Amino acid sequence: MAKLSLKIITPERHMFEGEVDMVIMRTTSGDVGILHGHQPLVTVLDYGVLTLKNEGEEDKKAALLGGFAEVNEKGMSILTDAAEWSDEIDVVRAQKAKERAEARLKNIDSNVDVMRAELALKRALVRIGLKG
Amino acid sequence: MASMRDIKRRIKSVNSTQQITKAMNLVASSKLTKAKNRFTDTKPFFQATRNVIADVVKGSKGISNEFMEEREVKNSLIVVITGDRGLCGGYNANVCKEAYALSKGKNASFITVGSKAREFFSHKKCNIVTSYRDMSEKPDYSDAYILGSKVIDMYTKGEADEIYLVYTRFISTLTNEPEHIKLLPLDPKDFEGSNAPHSSTLTIYEPDEESVLEYVIPKYVNTVIFGAMIESAVCELSSRMTAMDSATENASEMIAHLNLVYNRVRQGAITQEITEIVSGSNALE
After folding, report:
1. B186 or B121, which is more confident?
2. What is the CATH number of domain B24-242?
3. Which residues form the domain of A35?
4. A82 contacts on B by Cβ (under 8 Å)
5. N or C: which end of chain B has fewer CB within 10 A?
6. Do residues B114 and B84 touch, judged by C-beta distance below 8 A?
7. Which residue ranges of chain A lie beneath pLDDT 50?
8. Is B66 helix (H, G, I), strand (E, B) or coil?
9. Are residues A58 and A103 in the same domain?
């Protein structure tokens, strides 16, 4: 099967560059799987798990914290603000962040930035979900 | 004429200053290598973001987006990026001057990054909206994100109708230039001219073109800010390196000159002593 060439770029580093069989990612309108030869596509990504599948190898998983993906004839690039491979995730820290965000959301007053707390909670849940 | 002891003391003090400038030069040059690496690492993200916008703009004529529409300019916002510390030649002053010249004839307010810019503009009694510090030397994306969100927030609320970014462009280790770019509103023509790979008309935008643009443009603004911050950091370090290098050289010259004077004075003192002894013994005879 022809392979899809994939690049994952964050502002601070080149996270991945190589060929994979299939990419599964979470867009704002649901999970999408991309194979080689996909129609050109630009899509906005939600917080979620990114899975790279290669035949005969274990799946590579990463937590993707928003961004967007572009597919064209040359391949696919994922541009994200932040992403972490599953082995880079600090579960203890994520757990703490989750508790903190939940506590904030429980007693909302004017000092709490609700959107920020919700985003923090979402981030923590993605990280924990990937590890869990 | 200064006494021998005075000159000796002077040499000592110049010497210790030289040691400091030498150390600062070394520190700056090692930091510069790191900063330069980061600078090249951030390029692909910036380029890719730009390409997507260019594709969307090219692929769909007449798309409207609030970040692309020119509106009547009442308030301008100028974002200035400088360092927190001095001793880096004209680096800070040059950016501030560029920004100040840009603000002439405009109803401008400022967002400053780095304490040097804040000092400059508060001294000039300009209106400073917010000032940030401790992010100039080693900027993180999260810093750029905070700044970018603030800028976009002000733009969407109508507190600013046009936004400029003033930073320092890196040309080579010895030369860099202050420069200003227009951050918002974006000029669609800017993108049409770019040589981004042309995407086919078959491209699907999910959920749709407007939402993609709406999402990508703030990202793009953040990336531009981040890139400018990193480039400015590279410039700050390289200016500091050059400044400290010439300071070290000047100190060497000064020490050489002082040594010359010292030896002359020493010789004079010895000659005088000999003359005194000789005339003393002559008087005894």
Report:
1. B121
2. 3.40.1380.10
3. 4-85
4. 141
5. C
6. yes
7. none
8. coil
9. no
Tokens of B66: 């609030």
Residue by residue, DSSP assigns B129-191 as: EEEE-S-SSS--HHHHHHHHHHHHHHHHHTS-SEEEEEEEEE-SSS-EEEEEEEEES--HHHH
Would you kindly state where each structural domain of chain B is located, as residue ranges? 24-242
Residues in chain B whose Cβ is within 8 Å of chain A: 38, 41-42, 44-45, 48-49, 51-52, 55-56, 140-141, 144-145, 197, 199-200, 202-207, 211-212, 215-216, 219, 222-223, 226
The answer to whether residues A46 and A99 belong to one domain is no
Shared domain for A9 and A44, answered yes or no, is yes
Q: Which is higher by pLDDT, B43 or B18?
A: B18
| Chain B residues touching residue A14 (CB < 8 angstroms) | 41, 44
Chains A, B: CB contacts under 8 A, how many?
A: 81
CB-based burial of residue B62 (10 Å sphere; 0-12 exposed, 13-18 middle, 19+ buried)? exposed
User: Do residues A18 and A73 both lie within one domain?
Assistant: yes
CATH number, residue A113: 1.20.5.440
Position B23 scores a pLDDT of: 95
Q: Residue A18 maps to which CATH number?
A: 2.60.15.10
ipTM of the complex: 0.77
Are residues A96 and A58 located together in one domain of the fold?
Answer: no
**A12, A42, A43: residue with CB nearest B141:** A12
Question: How far does B183 lie from chain A, in Å, by closest CA?
Answer: 18
Asked whether the beta carbons of residue A43 and residue B38 sit closer than 8 angstroms, the reply is no
**pLDDT of the residue at B115:** 92
Q: A79 contacts in B (CB within 8 Å)?
A: 45, 48-49, 52, 219
pLDDT in tens, B67-107: 888 888 889 999 999 999 888 888 999 999 999 999 998 89
Helix or strand run (H / E) with residue A41: strand A41-53
- Residue in B with minimal Cα distance to A72: B199
| CA proximity to B161, closest of B95, B224, B78, B99 | B78
CB contact under 8 Å between A12 and B49, yes or no, is: no
Q: Are residues A40 and A63 in the same domain?
A: yes
Q: Which residues of B touch A41 (CB under 8 A)?
A: 203-206
Q: What is the pLDDT of residues B162-198, one digit of tens each?
A: 999 999 999 988 889 999 988 888 877 777 655 555 5
Q: Tell me which residue of B76, B87, B139 sits closest to B113, measured CA to CA.
A: B139
- Would you call B42 and A12 a contact, using CB atoms and an 8 Å cutoff? yes
Which pLDDT score, from 0 to 100, does residue A111 have? 66
